[in-house]
Structures are given as C-alpha cells and as structure tokens.
Design brief:
- This protein has nine helices and ten strands.
- By secondary structure, it is α/β, with parallel strands linked by helices.
- The protein has a five-stranded mixed β-barrel. Strands 3-4-5 form a three-stranded parallel beta sheet, with helices on one face.
- α7 runs parallel beside α8.
- The N and C termini lie far apart (about 55 Å).
C-alpha cells in the first residue's frame, strides 16, 4: 500500500491482504506438533498486518502465536520504523519467545531522499525507533536495507546515510545499488547517478557496515547462550550449525540428533561473523 517510488511490488502484488488470525495460529500449531521450535511471521509489509481486517494488529497476532505450546522462538521480517512505537515495544518486552532481532529498513539516511522515495518516516524518527529497541532489549541485533545511488542523490545526501549507519551501529546490513524498475516513478526521474559514482559510494558504505559489524560481532564471546540447532555444518564434518536469538550463527560439535533442539552453548571464539562454541555440559566447556 505504500508505493515507494523505486519498488514494483505494489503494482505486481496489489493491495495488502492479511491472513485471518485463526489460520495463522492453526498453521503455527501444526508446525509445533511437527517439532518446529521457531516460526517467522513474514509478508510484503508486516507492520500493516490486520489493517484490512479491522480488528487485529501485528502485536495482537504475535501474542496469539506466542501462546502456542511448543513454539519457543518468534521472528518477523522487515519492520516499518514507525511501527516501533512505545506501545509495540512494551508489548514485545512481555513476550520472551520474541527474538532479539529486528530488521528495520532504512533505505536512506537523508530526509530529502526518503521523501523522494515516498518513505513515510524521516531519519530522526528512524533513529528514535532504534534507540527504543536498544533501551528495551540490551542484546538486540538491528539489521537493515540501504539503497545507494537513488536518482538525485548528492554526495551530501550520501554522507547523511553514512552518519545514520554510524549512529545506529547495525549488526549487519543488506546494501544495494539502485537499479531501475520499469513502470516505477523513480525510473523516470532526472539526475540518474553515474555508475562509477554509485560504485564508489557503495564501496565506502560497505566498508563502514563491515567495520561496525566486525566490532559488534564478538560481544557475546565467553558467554553461554541458547542455540537452536538447524542443520549439519556444510563445511566440516562433526559440527552442527545453529542460531542465537539475535540471529548470529554458531558452529559447534554435534550430530543429526541435535537438529531442532535448543541447547546451552559456551561461545568460545568469534570468527568475524559467526561463533565457534561447544555444549555447556562437555569437557571442552569445563576446561574453559
């Protein structure tokens, strides 16, 4: 329903259509009965859930899913920054199954660019939403999407985006070079940015994002955290791979019997963007 000027999805998919809450809860119950421990509530614009139903909101459906026995973790996909208000944060803080991971799309840190993108928030409101999350959830991981080279973006506009990245300190970010989508207003805008300028800005942004991510990555080294084991490690035999509540990846010794279980893991070492760990109740952990 938002019609961002660079996005073809509203034209391709049409207006929002929310699934009925009883259908969502029933599907989650079936997943729990089949041994699933984590669910992701996802959609094109998750924060708009229920607007077409009239009597339910995103927070309401999260609370309903939270009540399903057997489900131990709940995530949701990209959130609208304006949806992260005091009421939403207060309600989420009472739901221990909700993961410490929020994906808030920034797209640009420049208010002029955000307006031309037809985004409905400004950089100040975005930063306030991130601050709300960090105040409520000390271990929260915040991730984002950023577009570089939107038509008319000046060097000063780009530097404003860099400033927001420094302020928020993302755990990770998906960075994109703007590309035309036929049929969107942005494709017809003047002042399309030269490719070499976009590439330079993209490289600078990516380096900043990676530097910040690397600095934050090892914050939990030495601690014991719950890990949901998801699969056998693809690179090394004898290891399994899982995730923390904040979405960080962990590799640890294990076998196929551990898949689908949540286990306490001692995070022994950070390898940049993932942790190496071991089960808390093993000799390796005891030696530490």
């Amino acid at each position: 329903n938002r019609y961002c000027t660079y996005c073809i999805i509203p034209y391709a998919r049409g207006p929002i259509r929310s699934r009925k809450p009883e259908e969502v809860v029933e599907e989650v119950k079936k997943l729990a009965e089949n041994g699933f421990k984590e669910v992701v509530l996802t959609g094109i614009h998750v924060a708009s859930y229920g607007l077409d139903l009239g009597n339910i909101t995103l927070a309401d459906i999260i609370e309903k899913v939270h009540s399903v026995d057997g489900i131990e973790r709940i995530r949701f996909s990209s959130m609208e920054p304006l949806a992260i208000d005091n009421e939403f944060v207060a309600r989420m803080s009472k739901l221990p199954k909700v993961c410490d991971h929020y994906h808030l799309s920034l797209q640009s840190g420049c208010n002029r660019t955000l307006k031309r993108m037809n985004r409905k928030y400004n950089a100040e409101q975005y930063a306030e939403a991130c601050e709300r999350l960090r105040n409520a959830f000390p271990n929260v991981a915040i991730t984002t999407d950023i577009i570089v080279g939107f038509p008319g973006e000046t060097e000063e506009d780009f530097l404003e985006t860099m400033d927001v990245v420094r302020q928020v300190e993302y755990d990770s970010a998906f960075t994109f070079i703007y590309s035309k989508r036929t049929g969107t207003p942005a494709a017809k805008m003047e002042n399309q940015i030269p490719e070499d300028v976009i590439k330079d800005r993209f490289d600078r942004l990516l380096k900043l994002v990676q530097d910040i991510s690397a600095k934050k990555a090892g914050a939990l080294t030495g601690s014991v955290q719950d890990v949901l084991v998801e699969e056998l490690d693809e690179q090394q035999e004898g290891l399994v791979t899982g995730r923390l509540s904040n979405n960080s990846v962990v590799h640890l010794p294990g076998d196929v019997s551990m898949i689908g279980t949540i286990v306490p893991v001692h995070l022994k070492e950070c390898k940049g963007f993932y942790y190496m760990g071991c089960l808390l109740y093993t000799s390796d952990a005891a030696d530490e």
